[in-house]
Design a protein that fits this description.
By secondary structure, the protein is of the alpha+beta class. The protein is built from 5 helices and 7 strands; from the N terminus they run ββααααβββββα. The longest helix is centred in the middle third of the chain and has 45 residues. It binds zinc ion.
Length: about 200
């Protein structure tokens, strides 16, 4: 799916997770180039890439190029397209897994009564963030709540799910201690003051 947002035209949906489940690179904790290589073995072209390849073929045909030239050019296009796509998938999934791992730690801390349920998480854009992410910078949401994005109010539970290759992350904000950390006698920790 392609959503237009001002001048930015960004592919917001890319079912990379499904593809990623077909390889077991995550479990072995391999690096992105290795992951990209494994992804390359299981994917094909995106719709947009297929359109580009057809355009190239038609253009060459109309220019009267030989069938062997056309075949060589379209094969090279296909290889490049698959290489690009495999890198996109590896980068996208790596960020998603990192953010998700972070969230699982917070969820565990909340379940253990260490983090209070009113604690917030803050969206942190990466330098050079795109038009979709920039308005999200600094926005708070609950540990058990999604963020509402500018893309037709679409909800995302993890910043890196806003679009492929997103490098945004999340941090805790307005931290509230859970019941397990209550000081006996009813006193509460003053985090702000002790940190100053
Ligand atoms: Zn982003």
């Amino acid at each position: 799916m392609v959503t237009e947002l001002g001048p930015a035209k960004i592919e917001v949906e890319l079912d990379t997770s499904k593809i990623f489940r077909q390889i077991d690179a995550i479990r072995r904790q391999v690096d992105i180039p290795t992951m990209a290589e494994e992804v390359r073995q299981v994917i094909g072209l995106t719709d947009r890439q297929r359109i580009g390849m057809n355009r190239l073929r038609e253009g060459m045909r109309q220019a009267g190029r030989s069938p062997s030239d056309i075949k060589a050019a379209t094969q090279a296009y296909r290889n490049r397209a698959i290489e690009n796509r495999s890198k996109v998938i590896a980068r996208t999934e790596t960020m998603r897994i990192q953010n998700r791992a972070q969230e699982l730690q917070w969820e565990r801390a909340m379940d253990a009564g260490i983090l209070g349920t009113e604690t917030k998480r803050r969206w942190m854009t990466a330098p050079g963030a795109c038009d979709l992410c920039r308005p999200m910078n600094g926005r708070l949401t609950g540990l058990n709540e999604p963020w509402i994005t500018a893309i037709k109010g679409k909800e995302v539970w993890n910043p890196s799910f806003i679009h492929p290759q997103c490098r945004c992350t999340e941090v805790l904000d307005e931290i509230q201690l859970g019941p397990a950390l209550d000081v006996p006698g009813g006193q509460e920790f003053e985090i702000e003051e002790s940190a100053a």
